[in-house]
Specification:
It is a single chain. The chain is an alpha+beta fold. The protein folds into 2 domains: 4-243, Dna Ligase, domain 1, CATH 3.30.1490.20; 245-359, D-amino Acid Aminotransferase, Chain A, domain 1 (2-Layer Sandwich), CATH 3.30.470.20. It has 12 helices and 8 strands. The protein has helices at residues 20-23, 29-44, 67-82, 122-129, 132-149, 155-166, 176-194, 202-215, 220-228, 280-284, 293-299, 301-313, and strands spanning 11-14, 52-55, 95-100, 111-115, 238-243, 254-259, 271-276, 318-321. The strands form 2 sheets. The protein has a 5-stranded antiparallel beta sheet with strand order 1-2-5-3-4, sandwiched between helices. Strands 7-6-8 form a 3-stranded antiparallel beta sheet. Helix 5 (132-149) packs parallel to helix 7. The chain starts with 10 loop residues before the first strand and ends in a 38-residue tail after the last strand.
Length: 359
Amino acid sequence: MKSSNHWPKHFYLVAAGADAGAHRHKASRDSMGSKAFNLLRMADVGLPVPPALVIGTHYTACPDECMLPVFAVGLPALEQASGLKFGDERRPLIVSVRSGAPVSMPGMMETLLNVGLSDQTVPGLLRQTGNPRLVWDAYRRLIACFGEVVAGLPAALFDEQIALVADGRDERLLDFHELRDLTRRFLALYQQHAGHVFPQDGNLQLSLAVRAVFASWNSPKAQAYRQINQIDPSIGTAVTIQSMVFGNSGAHAGAGVGFTRDPTTGEKRLWVDFLANAQGEDVVSGRRNAHGHEALATVAPRPGASSKKQRRRWSWSSWTCRTLSSRCRTVCCTCCRPARANAHPWPPRALRWTCSTRK
């Protein structure tokens, strides 16, 4: 890793044991967004937060300026914290790329998951996980999301292929042979409609993903939301690059959104929407009907019990479990943002997190 003297001013590392002075200079909600700032708080109290690199809100107006420090200093620090290497053919680091403003703007900006997967890194992730279904499912998700968010392709192009392959079944029931076939169809569709092949270079994927997330700050829907809610457009958004956890790893994994208060009434009780064998966007996009805390406790008893403990620890909170497993002893937090209980004028402090098996 580079010397702490060279750590970029508006970059932040969220990781166990990270030197606060070297990697968290003047960390605040305004500088790194509420989502990442809450990750930092959770990491500091000992919750298992997968390592993350945060590009500060400073770069919203000049995203090109963050690219050199991302690859020269930030990404190597994230690799060291995770023990994996981005783009490596044997032990690849796969990341999510998320937005996060100082003020909550749910659903207004873009997220990309599974960044770093390619024809070259698929064999490495197969060796790491021993789960071909997970790997091909994650790869096809990346191609479709990248096509929609970065290349501007209509989601319907990919949805039609899913419908053809699934033939009326839930796509979570597709086996790895079908998902591998779907991935190849997606690659061909991407090339046909984007006019170029899907980027196989991980660094190119990451740089385009970061630019796309920053650009989504000025999307029409984001601008309209800020205008309606009287949010200052100058606050900008941060971008969080975080080691992926996989909720699509099987029947004992999943994704969900949880609240420590009823989001409608504000009553102090655990509220969870959970979907087994899924990634976070399956739930938060509203494309699927999720289940409650009972489903979480049945599929993954240990994280289910842990979520109750974390509810007591983080009073007046909202959190998201995007991926988890019955072998996981507690939740792994990967995504946080403020939320509001609609029935109350006070905004409860909020968390949004992801759980996964941590080997």
